[in-house]
Specification:
The protein is mainly β and 161 residues long. The protein has a single domain, classed as Cupredoxins -  blue copper proteins (Immunoglobulin-like). Helices cover 4% and strands 40% of the residues. The chain has one helix and twelve strands, in the order βββββββββββαβ. The strands form two sheets. Strands 1, 2, 3, 5, 7, 8 and 10 form a seven-stranded mixed beta sheet that branches. The longest helix has 6 residues. The protein is flat. The relative contact order is 0.27.
Length: 161
Amino acid sequence: MPMDRTGEPGQGLENVGHKVLVYKDLMALERNPDVRAPDRSLDIHLTGNMERFMWSFDGEKMSDVHDPIPFIEGERVRINLINDSMMGHPIHIHGHFFELVTGHGDHAPRKHTVIVQPGGKVTWDFTADAVGDWAFHCHLLYHMHAGMMRVVSVRPKGEAA
């Protein structure tokens, strides 16, 4: 079962002899612009095989996926990124910011990239406020190139996702 590792330092930083900031230490200075409860939840698994150099979301690499991840403008969604691989992945979304669910309520840290530790889970709340198609990918570009990328599509209200 993946666990929330946002309170842990990154790999190799556990015993460095000084304070290492972790995601749970971060807090927004101002209240988040959207503090509504999520309308729905979406689990996305980070999958791959280091020996075979295969990287993907939910076991499907980008070249095998034909449909984007759909959202409706203004929709609030809780995203659970679950890392099923043995490597950390910095996951990035274009065109949007999200709020990490780290216990800071309406002052959650706002990010567009977050590292998901091996065997870990990161949860964030996302408001689909920028209409269009946007890249969603691992920021280790060789992982993105190997397939750990998807398109996020935000459709205007009233239009089918």
